[in-house]
Amino acid sequence: SKRSSFDKITERNKMSVWIVLFIAYSIIIALGIGII
Q1: How many domains does the chain have?
Q2: Exposure string (b/e) for 10-30, b if CB count within 10 Å is 16 or more?
Q3: Which chain regions cross the lipid bilayer (predicted)?
């Protein structure tokens, strides 16, 4: 059962990483276009 809980944690971490990357990418795009 340790393995399955670890897999759940890694999946959650992957999602949070993708969200952070998406936010950072959006900020970079906005800066490049000159909105900010």
Answers
A1: 1
A2: eeeeeeeeeeeeeeeeeeeee
A3: 15-35
Residue-wise pLDDT tens digits, 4-23: 888 888 888 889 999 999 99
pTM of the model: 0.57
Residues 22, 28, 32: CA angle, nearest 5 degrees: 145
CB 30 within 8 A of CB 36: yes
User: Which residue segment(s) compose the domain that 6 sits in?
Assistant: 1-36
> How far is the CA of 8 from the CAs of 1, 20, 22, in angstroms?
11, 19, 21
